[in-house]
Specification:
With 86 residues, the protein is α+β, with helices and mostly antiparallel strands. It is built from 2 helices and 5 strands. Strands 1-5-4-3-2 form a 5-stranded antiparallel beta sheet, with helices on one face.
Amino acid sequence: MSVCNFSIPFSGEAETILAKAKDAIETQNGIFTGNDSSGNFEITVLANTIKGSFNITDQVLNLMITNKPFFVPCSTIESFLRSKIS
């Protein structure tokens, strides 16, 4: 069962938003794998791991956080990603 789910609508090519997402994760020494339709990511924040997956449906990036520290709210993760890829 997912801990958090959120969707980020976008315009343009899926490759562009995924490149931004990959850069946001990898800049923080995280791992981002997948293709233009789905994949997984993992990032360590304050010695705690956040793991999740993504998929693209039409012009929407769907993110599913499957593991996160209890003290990091879903809204914080969503805000961080939105700020990096919007």
